[in-house]
Design goal:
This protein is mostly helical. The protein is 57% helix and 7% strand. It has helices at 25-41, 45-48, 52-61, 69-76, 80-92, 114-134, 140-162; strands spanning 66-67, 96-100, 108-112. A three-stranded antiparallel beta sheet has the order 1-3-2. Helix 1 packs across helix 6 and helix 4 crosses helix 5 (80-92). The longest helix has 23 residues, at 140-162. The two termini are 27 Å apart.
Length: 168
């Protein structure tokens, strides 16, 4: 994969004939996501047998949160279908409880059980170790700049999405 340097303006695609998939931001983000997600998954799949959606559901819930499935979707960037499957699987494994609202049977709250809290504690430390390994060779300034840049691009993408009728 070719990563543009500061000296290169090749990443600025102005014309179709200049297009290079290897420097196209959406492609780079997808490749980045795939590699990073795979690295993080290696910290929890072998020991805990969780899917990425289950891991994110537990990570969002944390040991003290009680949330609805919609809240988990909003906070995790996981689709409703995947969150629903994750909740069912985690509930079956005894890691979370799903309680139906007494007044509105359409609403339910999700929270961790004692086993879920122990699993949470077991998955976070290895994930943080992977994060440190991913940051290897980067200064604190590099990391802050990366997070800032990603945040700005995310805001731009949200703005574009808000101006569009398209709903992925």
């Amino acid at each position: 994969m070719h990563i543009p340097t500061q000296e290169s303006t090749k990443y600025l695609h102005n014309k179709a004939e200049e297009f290079d998939l290897q420097t196209f931001l959406p492609y780079l983000v997808r490749v980045f996501y795939t590699h990073v997600s795979s690295a993080v998954a290696q910290s929890y799949v072998p020991s805990f047998g969780l899917t990425p959606s289950e891991w994110r559901t537990l990570a969002v819930l944390g040991p003290s949160e009680t949330l609805s499935a919609s809240d988990i979707v909003d906070r995790s960037s996981v689709t409703r279908v995947h969150v629903s499957r994750a909740i069912k699987s985690l509930q079956k494994r005894g890691l979370i409880r799903r309680d139906i609202d007494g007044l509105d049977k359409r609403k339910a709250s999700v929270r961790m059980t004692a086993d879920g809290i122990e699993t949470y504690k077991g998955i976070i430390a290895p994930a943080l170790e992977v994060e440190q390994a991913l940051f290897k060779g980067l200064t604190e300034e590099d990391i802050l700049h990366l997070i800032s840049t990603m945040s700005k691009i995310n805001q731009n993408a949200e703005l574009i999405g808000a101006q569009s009728n398209w709903d992925p």
